[in-house]
Amino acid sequence: MDTSIKITLLLVTLFFVATKGAANQSNVAQSLSKSNELQKCENGLGTKCGHSIYQHVFKAGKEVSNECCSRLITVGKDCHDLLTEVTIVYKRLSEKKAREIWQKNDKAWEDCKKSVAPSPRGSSELQNCENGLGTKCGHLIYKNVFESKTEVSKDCCSRLLTVGKDCHDLLTEVTIVYKRLTEKHAKEIWLKNDKVWEQCQTE
């Protein structure tokens, strides 16, 4: 999403929340909380997927890719609804048009749920695991488990042991679901998953 539009949407959100009731400190705090929440939702989706989902809901866009569906499921329904709500306000859509958009919004969510099964545990837990590993180590461990074997550095092993086995397993589980691996392939991945953990324990 373009930066200027993003800023405008944030301001619209502040105005929208603040004017729903009497102007007081409670509403100001709620407005700030809402704008922070919006920023997190946009960051979670990313520019490419945010644009793709926007096109799908508000225009005659293409089907949402598995990658973007996965991101959408991860950020959650509340984020999906918030982004739609703010855009409806920003565009000043009529009540009739807004109802149509909400139907498309809900359909996009349901379609994504069918195409990408969410983790049985919370998306916040998944996010914490990813943040704990960091991009570099997360990618390195992913390659070791799902692609050709590579050396996991001591630093990345240390990060992996810090986030714990549950996080390691959760990230592997979500990726297996996302990739729609066969049962046979999934078993091979779990063996590699456990081997990486054991190797890091001996570092």
From TrEMBL:
Check the UniProt entry and state the signal peptide residues, or none.
1-23
Specify one Pfam family. Answer: Prolamin_like
Which keywords has UniProt assigned to this entry? Signal
Which InterPro entries does the record cross-reference, listed alphabetically? Answer: Prolamin-like
**Domain of life of the native organism:** Eukaryota
Q: Which residues form the Prolamin-like domain?
A: 40-112, 129-200
Indicate yes or no for the key word Transport. Answer: no
Protein name from the UniProt record? Prolamin-like domain-containing protein
Q: State the organism of origin.
A: Saponaria officinalis
